[in-house]
Amino acid sequence: MTDTPAAPTPPPPQHTLLCVDDEPNIVSALRRLFRGPGYRVLVADGGRAGLAVLEAEPVDLVISDMRMPEMTGAEFLAVVAERWPRTMRILLTGYADLSSTVDAINKGAIYRYVSKPWDDNDLKLTVQRALEQQHVTRERDRLVGIVARQNKQLRAMNAGLESQVRARTEEIRQTAEMLDLAYKELKQSYVEVVPVLASFAEMREGDSKGHGRRVAEMAREVARELRLDDDLVQQIYFAALLHDVGKLSMPDELLRKPFTAMKPEERLRYMRHPAIGQAGFTGVESMQDMALLIRCHHERHDGAGYPDGLQGDGIPLGARILAIANDFDSLQLGQLVEGQLGKREARAFLEENRGLRYDPRILDVFLAWLDSNPELAAGTIKEFRLTSDALKRGMVLARDFVNDDGVLMLSHGHVLDDRVIERLRAMERDEQHGFTVYVKHTE
């Protein structure tokens, strides 16, 4: 008896990618990244050349740089969206291209933007998810076509074929269930828009980078401790990721100041950011509940918050959770009061404001969760930003210290002593301006 040879494994489906950039090294890097089974890579050195390729061949996904001569990435992807709407679109961009990136999102309906330099694994995963969404969309269209054809056949059937009609009706019911499942999968992919928007807000965080993600993770865990349903937990998490999106329109000089150090007119401008953040989602009906949490995350339990002066249970539950998580992280960043607080000091501030700023019941849950998570014992912040007059002997540099000419003066990990501290202060006097020094959190 001879063994039957195993059937060969079918090759993975091949997707056609078009990489558009006027820089040969970028194109070469993308070609190398997607070399291998599953992808066929086409290249073009500009927007017009890319359109010529699209006219000649079917393309599943386009990766385009923002800055190109003759036609920008935003202009190119806008044409692609109009003429080949089913082709997925990814934009490569840098920090300086922020306004152009917003234009590309609005006009080019891009799936995702990726900052340069990119992480290879992140870019490959982004492309994979884009192609999966494209597959769901195509499958939905195929099923819609099946339903339409079957309905047409049913209308043409003879009334005497009742048994056949019943069989066809069952087929349609099953097809409708499949269509509903495909639609839910497509709807799920839309939640990826939130991380894209959150990354825009994070670009403005500067020294406090990661604040939105830390607040979101804490708020999500507290919501779970309160045994809220999954949809509300996700809504709170998304609101926390985007709670500072209203600050995108505000100047860096204002955002670098602690709230208690702002002038009255600066405070009034700063206090508009929750309402501005909510207004950004006015046209997105499915995000209205989340946007309300963004608006209310600076309300206080005693009614002394802003923008609406809500009080107690009149503040949405998610916003009460978000307020505690946001302040705990902001205190350690030096955003709420002057000077960065340690984890124990930030905790003491929360407890002192029980029933004033914060809902006592939710605060108890937050503090209990904090106690049960030893990984937070060192605080959420790993470094402090100090001026030279706050430096002390024994502090350890968290970052390299570089002077105005770009010369490395002290390396990351250097332990400060009195001589070094005095030398830094002398340099400030010579340069006639203060320096910012980053030291490690040692609590």
List keywords for this structure.
443 residues, five-stranded parallel β-sheet, Hypothetical protein af1432, alpha/beta, Rossmann fold, two-stranded antiparallel sheet
Describe the protein in words:
With 443 residues, this protein is of the alpha/beta class. The protein folds into four domains: 15-126, Rossmann fold (3-Layer(aba) Sandwich), CATH 3.40.50; 141-192; 204-376, Orthogonal Bundle (Hypothetical protein af1432); 383-440, Molybdopterin biosynthesis moea protein, domain 2 (Alpha-Beta Complex). It contains 17 helices and nine strands. The strands form three sheets. The protein has a five-stranded parallel beta sheet with strand order 2-1-3-4-5, sandwiched between helices. Helix 1 (24-33) links the parallel strand 1 and strand 2 (39-44). The protein is globular and about 90 Å long.
Helix content: 40-55%
Strand order of the largest sheet: 2-1-3-4-5
CATH class call of the largest domain: Mainly Alpha
Number of strands: 9
Structural class: alpha/beta
Layout of secondary structure:
Blueprint: E1 15-20, H1 24-33, E2 39-44, H2 47-56, E3 61-65, H3 73-83, E4 88-93, H4 98-108, E5 112-115, H5 120-156, H6 162-189, H7 193-203, H8 211-225, H9 230-241, H10 252-255, H11 264-270, H12 273-279, H13 288-296, H14 317-333, H15 343-352, H16 360-371, E6 383-387, E7 401-402, E8 408-410, H17 418-431, E9 436-440
Parallel strand pairs: 1-2, 1-3, 3-4, 4-5
Antiparallel strand pairs: 6-9, 7-8
